[in-house]
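Deliverable D2.4 — example input (structure tokens):
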């Protein structure tokens, strides 16, 4: 007597492509003791899949597993295809993000420089009056830089606050896309003969019952991979160093634009500036 606690709907179907038992919709998730009860045995499994928290430890896991299981009945294999698939997807997204950052940086530099140049030229009359009153050109340029620097500080504060929320939302969307792609690839591999969804596993030869169950968690192939992928998430952090780098880059643009616009005006005499 069993109690059904949930019925799921498979997103993929292999009907018509092979035996019906390979269809994900026909898979029952239950305790391994039920299979033993049906077979009339206890403490045995045909195969076991283990999920490792660190894929780099798969080799040490295989060595440890071979010491505690019957290697005549079981073969121990390690498969990090899910991790590699997730890694490749993240590398593609990182490359795409870097290209977007460079594109935005170049476009932003041009736009910001043009805005500052136009703003400085609109204050042409003000600079002519200051020069006629005996103000030094260096102080006038310094005043413009100080004003732009104050605006830069406010902009960095807004970027640090708003960028975290916007970046977190974007990172979640990216992670969902990567997770969907990796899970679909994992399901496809698991439906093929010999597919294994976890980074480590112990398998018995076909048609042969294994020995005592190794200590660990028993999972269906592919289930551990999907759990590992879903557990992955991006924790976006904007450090002070990043803001300082952004501020230095912005101040460089500001200084270049202010000097370019002001020197073209300040090289003239006050009388010509006011007349112009």
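Example output (designed residues):
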């Amino acid at each position: 007597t069993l109690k059904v606690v949930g019925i799921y709907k498979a997103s993929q179907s292999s009907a018509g492509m092979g035996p019906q038992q390979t269809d994900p919709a026909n898979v029952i998730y239950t305790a391994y003791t039920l299979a033993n009860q049906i077979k009339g045995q206890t403490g045995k499994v045909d195969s076991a899949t283990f999920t490792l928290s660190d894929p780099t430890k798969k080799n040490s896991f295989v060595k440890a597993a071979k010491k505690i299981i019957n290697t005549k009945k079981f073969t121990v294999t390690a498969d990090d295809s899910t991790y590699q698939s997730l890694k490749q997807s993240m590398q593609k997204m990182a490359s795409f993000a870097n290209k977007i950052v460079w594109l935005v940086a170049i476009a932003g530099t041009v736009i910001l420089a043009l805005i500052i140049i136009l703003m400085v030229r609109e204050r042409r009359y003000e600079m002519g009056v200051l020069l006629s009153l005996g103000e030094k050109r260096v102080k006038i340029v310094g005043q413009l830089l100080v004003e732009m620097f104050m605006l830069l500080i406010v902009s960095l504060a807004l970027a640090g606050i708003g960028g975290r929320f916007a970046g977190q939302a974007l990172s979640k969307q990216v992670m969902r896309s990567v997770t969907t792609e990796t899970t679909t690839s994992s399901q496809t591999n698991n439906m093929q003969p010999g597919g294994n969804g976890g980074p480590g596993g112990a398998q018995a030869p076909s048609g042969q019952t294994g020995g005592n169950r190794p200590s660990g968690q028993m999972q269906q192939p592919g289930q551990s991979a999907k759990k590992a992928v879903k557990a992955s998430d991006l924790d976006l952090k904007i450090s002070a160093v990043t803001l300082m780098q952004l501020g230095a880059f912005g101040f460089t643009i500001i200084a270049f634009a202010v000097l370019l616009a002001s020197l073209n005006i300040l090289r003239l005499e006050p009388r010509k500036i006011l007349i112009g």
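DSSP finds eight helices and three strands in the chain.
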